[in-house]
């Protein structure tokens, strides 16, 4: 979904499917240049209740970063807030826990947001 360029942040609120295995939020320049691949995994690919983050540069995946804090519940509403600067993306989870992921692509702006998997977006707000 093409978006107008944003610099400060985005809030994504949606419903997690009752039988959720995983979902993905991708943010970046386009589908081959993703500065944040945000992938909460309930039970898939050998990961249970783990958030996997990565980046994709020119179609090539980087090194995964795993977070063990997992406030997502199947069948619930969840909100993720992502703020952005040239050094890092800061991800705020539904329980208020915050962590950083490096802006490996050194993007100055983000104009691409895509969602996949067991998460139905209800609202996207730009800050």
TrEMBL record:
<dbReference type="GO" id="GO:0005615">
    <property type="term" value="C:extracellular space"/>
</dbReference>
<dbReference type="InterPro" id="IPR044156">
    <property type="entry name" value="Galectin-like"/>
</dbReference>
<comment type="subunit">
    <text>Homodimer. Binds LGALS3BP. Interacts with CD2, CD3, CD4, CD6, CD7, CD43, ALCAM and CD45. Interacts with laminin (via poly-N-acetyllactosamine). Interacts with SUSD2. Interacts with cargo receptor TMED10; the interaction mediates the translocation from the cytoplasm into the ERGIC (endoplasmic reticulum-Golgi intermediate compartment) and thereby secretion.</text>
</comment>
<dbReference type="GO" id="GO:0030395">
    <property type="term" value="F:lactose binding"/>
</dbReference>
<dbReference type="Pfam" id="PF00337">
    <property type="entry name" value="Gal-bind_lectin"/>
</dbReference>
<keyword id="KW-0430">Lectin</keyword>
<protein>
    <recommendedName>
        <fullName>Galectin</fullName>
    </recommendedName>
</protein>
<dbReference type="InterPro" id="IPR013320">
    <property type="entry name" value="ConA-like_dom_sf"/>
</dbReference>
<dbReference type="GO" id="GO:0043236">
    <property type="term" value="F:laminin binding"/>
</dbReference>
<dbReference type="InterPro" id="IPR001079">
    <property type="entry name" value="Galectin_CRD"/>
</dbReference>
<feature type="domain" description="Galectin">
    <location>
        <begin position="1"/>
        <end position="127"/>
    </location>
</feature>
